[in-house]
Amino acid sequence: MSYVPDRSQYPAKKADGTLDIDLTSGKYLKLWQGPNHPGITGNMSVELTVCGDEVVEGKTHVGYLHRGFEKLMERRTFIQCFPIVCRICVPEPDFNEYCYAAAVEELAGIQSPVRSDWIRTLILEMGRINSYMMYLGGQAGAFGLGVIAQWTTYVRDLMLDRFEELTGARIYHMFIMPGGVRDGLPEGFDQRMEETLCEMERTLKDVYEVMFCNAVFKKRSVGVGVIDPAWLEDYGVTGPNARAAGVAKDVRKDQPYLVYPELDFAPVTGQDSDIYTRADVRRRDVLVSIDLIRQILAKMPRSGPLMAKVPNVLHWKIPRGETYIRGECSRGEYGYYLVTDGSGYPRRVNVRGPSYTHAMALLERMIVNVNISDVAGLMVSLHTYPPEIER
Amino acid sequence: MNLSDLYYRLKALFPLGELTEQRPALAFITLPAEFLRPTLLHLRDREGFTHLVLLTAVDWIEEGRFQLTYLLSNRTQACDIGLRVMIKRPASGLATMDSIHDVWPTAATYQRELREMFGIDFPGSPRIEEEFILEGWNDIPPYRRDFDTLKYANASFNQRPGRETRDPATHMKQQMYPDMNPGGTT
Fold first, then answer.
1. N or C terminus of chain B with fewer C-beta within 10 Å?
2. How far is Cα B84 from Cα B68, in angstroms, rounded to an integer?
3. What ipTM describes this predicted complex?
4. Which one of B25, B54, B132 has the shortest CB-CB distance to A350?
């Protein structure tokens, strides 16, 4: 049986409950992981206090990518906000477009056309796959499996091709706008999408065999970085991080939006709540998204309006009100809280990104007593995107 | 869950203010600051609103107050409640509100951000005085309405030569109806 140290009194705590860490004692060391570090997820850093090779305290630092979107939007008309919201989250920008558009539509009393809702759902699922592909490469890379990232980047690029032919852009699509979507599907899109999905399934099979059946990956991820299910509500944990703990939290099912009620799927869950389980939940979630895209293409109407009638956007004023719109992105609950005051500008926009809770309070809680070499893998396993923390 | 029924159940316990039913699964309720904590605890422990979705502020500068919005979600019943608390907005210095970090530990992060960006203090909240996003900031809190981003940008950054900024409504009018604006660009 391996030695399990007693950490109940270690490090010692002061009377106010904070850790009693004396950096001059020679026992502890400050170590910065990030902002420039291969083991960090984007533009953030974690200030680690280590004792030997064990982390005793971790503090997340953000602000390296703060562009003040929420404030900038208060100076922009409702339509001027539309092309900038996608920039809040680079790897999966479409949820910003959907949540913003849906919030504006609700407060302005606009109903988006049915056909546009199908295309919106299609785009959100395409974006989800792209985000997961980026994650799988990063998760494998954090444990030294560099080839996985090359494979997932390849199939992600195929999906970016589909985005390009559908929206005209690869990363920032600016396609879901208040009132509907900019265009319908191009000719031959279904066939090319099917080829992409088949290639993706083949690649995922390879990823499963090389990553998930790999002894090194299993050794380093099974039983490591466990999220206690009791923490889910305390720390606002959502998405795959919650589902891997056995709780089927999925906004697509809990509070269905767009055309999800018409699609047949079940949230993917796990039980062990460790790094391996979270990775596996996401891998299986890609398969669900592939199936959803096939269902969408089979069921969606091929004719009908794509845009509802919206007021002259240069003089568009929305009555005083407030609302919250959410969706299930690849990391969990993504939402927009929009407040209007009767003027032509938003009074307040607040973006609720799942990384806000996962990378801050939850990561700081989980990182204690972790070995330094597991910090990168643990951090990536929470699938956090710093831009949505600091907006 | 019928949110209107919930409102009247709560109103029997706490002196609630206005109810706004935004849609069947989302309502906002205004309440006095001193009744926030018991209402939150009641909603969390008795009504199943266990998920703190977000905590943020709205600056109603012309009314001299901040609106704090505590958005809670009940996953089982698939509905959300936004609690609106209006607090006094001092012209300078910090506004103050009770911390709820002991109710939801994750609230400490939101409160840190609100102190930095809006100048709303939550005494007792962990690491409340630590910088969150900004570094060495000594201007007024930047998300307050009286912070002028354009003025700050002009004073702080060099503009790229040749860049033009236009009012969108005026510019589009000149583009679309050049005959009506002889002096405008075409």
1. C
2. 6
3. 0.90
4. B54
Tell whether A326 lies on the interface with B, counting CB pairs under 8 A: yes
Residue with tokens 């007792």: B124
Chain A residue closest in CA terms to B71:
A324
**A39 and A47 Cβ atoms separated by less than 8 Å:** no
CA-closest candidate to residue B69, choices B21, B109, B27, B9: B27
Q: Which residue from A139, A370, A120 is spatially nearest to A277, judged by alpha carbons?
A: A139
Tell me what percent of the residues of chain A surpass a pLDDT of 90: 65
Dump pLDDT digits (tens) for B21-63: 999 999 999 999 999 999 999 999 999 999 999 999 999 999 9
Instruction: For chain A, say whether B2 makes contact (Cβ under 8 Å).
Output: no
What residue spans define the domains of chain B? 3-159
Distances from the Cα of A373 to the Cα of A40, A55, A137, angstroms: 12, 10, 18
Contact assignment for B106 to A357 by CB distance below 8 Å:
yes
- Beta partners for residue B56, in sequence order: B69
Pairwise CB contact (< 8 Å): A390 & B80:
no
In chain A, how many H helices and how many E strands?
A: 15, 8
Confidence band of A104 (pLDDT split at 50, 70, 90) = very high
Contact assessment for residue A360 and residue A389, using Cβ atoms and an 8 Å cutoff = yes
Which candidate from A68, A350, A365 shows the least CB-CB separation from B56?
A350
Q: With helix as H, strand as E and coil as C, how does A60-76 read?
A: EECCCCCCCHHHHHCCC
A234 lies within 8 A of chain B by CB? yes
Q: Is the model's pLDDT at A95 over the cut of 80?
A: yes
The answer on pLDDT for A54 being more than 90 is: no
Q: Which of B51, B57, B143 sits opposite A71 (nearest CB)?
A: B143
Residues A365-387 have pLDDT tens digits of: 888 888 888 888 898 899 988 88
Helix (H) or strand (E) holding B68: strand B65-74
A321 touches chain B (CB under 8 A): yes
* Res B160: pLDDT: 82
Q: In the prediction, which pLDDT does B186 show?
A: 42
Range 122-141 of B in CB contact (< 8 A) with A: 131-135
Question: How far is it, in rounded angstroms, from Cα A108 to Cα A320?
Answer: 10
Mutant choice from A228, A340, A357, A366 vs B, greatest count of B C-beta within 10 A? A357
* Domain B3-159 coded CATH 3.40.50.700: no
Q: Which residue among A63, A235, A357 sits closest to B135, beta carbon to beta carbon?
A: A63
Residues A175-214 pLDDT 10s? 999 999 999 999 999 999 999 999 999 999 999 999 999 9
Q: CB of B172 within 8 Å of any CB in chain A?
A: yes
